[in-house]
Amino acid sequence: MPTSSPAMRTDAPRFAFPALVLANVFLALGPTFVRLADVGPVSAAFWRLALALPVLAALAWSGLRRLPPRPAEWAAMLTAGLLFAGDLAAWHLGILDTKIANATLFANMSALLLPLWALLVLRQRPARPQAAALVLAALGAAALMGGSYELSAAYLHGDLLCLLAGTFYTAYLLIVQGARRRLESWSVLAVSSMAGAPALLLCAWALGETVMPGDWTPVVALALSSQLVGQGLLTYAMGYFSPLVLGLSLLLQPAMGALLGWLLFGEWLTATDLAGTIAVAVALVLVRLPARA
Question: Where do the structural domains in the chain lie, given as residue ranges?
């Protein structure tokens, strides 16, 4: 029989849930900076990791000395880095061929896969507020998809790439969550970024992309917002939450993506998009209730 699982660890600090929400807000900025960059999409992914890596290494140094990773943990972090590279490469390529709302929604299919993993593999049964949040979030995501998705060949290629990215990202999150049971967040993020950056550079060269930017502003902003702040906060927070909560929190990104696509690129935000955004926000409130009880 499936067992009930708490939404949040009892020893989680107060900042953990706000960090989870803020992480997804900053991660939602990524597609905008990818579009604005004057390098190839995979090259932008490389700079996201490479520019953040010196700062991540400095932040991780003391933690790696205090809690040296075991051989299995080194292997897990390096594998996570390669999966993250696959996620970023597929996602950044897809961003240019579909709407921002589509890109963020499909790339965050982890919002569905993580709760399914918890239910089918970990045999964790959600509490009533969590189940209600999952249903509401699914309805919100469906509303966002219905409001932004267009049955057009122009978007199909980009949507499929973003779905592939979401598969890579789900595996990445599960591995990182396991590593975070013992290791510090900066240690995990630094090592996985170190593994992913060279793979992305090789991929960019193989695709014949422009690697060196003429305008550094978009790629620097991408590294700061998505990798240092967004991924940093997410890696910190994911050690304290169940897969269900992590999955639901990812749905904040499509909502933000729809808003940014409307404001910056004229990708019209409909009443359906607004309803989906509100549903996702309410779901995030509901999923937090068991932890407060």
Answer: 15-292
